[in-house]
Amino acid sequence: QQQVKQSPQSLIVQKGGISIINCAYENTAFDYFPWYQQFPGKGPALLIAIRPDVSEKKEGRFTISFNKSAKQFSLHIMDSQPGDSATYFCAAKNYGGSQGNLIFGKGTKLSVKP
Amino acid sequence: DAGITQSPRHKVTETGTPVTLRCHQTENHRYMYWYRQDPGHGLRLIHYSYGVKDTDKGEVSDGYSVSRSKTEDFLLTLESATSSQTSVYFCAISERGLNEKLFFGSGTQLSVL
After folding, report:
1. Which of A18, B26, B84, B105 pairs as cysteine with B6 (C-beta 3.0–4.6 A)?
2. Site from A21, A101, A106 to mutate, B interface, most B CB atoms within 10 angstroms
3. Is the CB of residue B36 less than 8 Å from the CB of residue B87?
4. Which residue of chain B is at minimal alpha-carbon distance from A10?
């Protein structure tokens, strides 16, 4: 119930294409869903986040789509660029218990080919 | 990296020795966290702090202890390092709320031989 399942593990996309990364969760108490982007040798950085009161959030080329009934959310990167090559982590905040810890997916390594 | 300094950046140590990793922030953020990152496991929370001298356990806290005597410093100690603690350790901070909008440091690569 505490897991966030992320897929695919790795993804290769051509420049200009759409990158799609999916995450699924079981705990219906989750109420905050961020995505983090990590470049090699760096710490993760918050990219975009959504709460379950909306089904979509867009920031530039990055869009989160959220399906509450299916307990799924996904990251779409439009017009993917080589500079988008990084590892992406989805996460969900757990309101169950006293800690409210972020639960991270295992990551997706994205490579955008020129 | 949002005013977060982790030290050391790299460390090699032997099994059974104590190790302390330091996280220093200049943002005056209330919340501080220690995560470990391992291939195939993503990021897992070790311990976190919600104020000076206020800390709590995360999901993988066994074998680790923390201390926060000042707002800006959060120390992670491995009392007796084991090979399973070989990992990349990240410190993170947040201001607005617990586990919201985390800013991460650049990490410490720890190898336990």
Report:
1. B105
2. A101
3. yes
4. B40
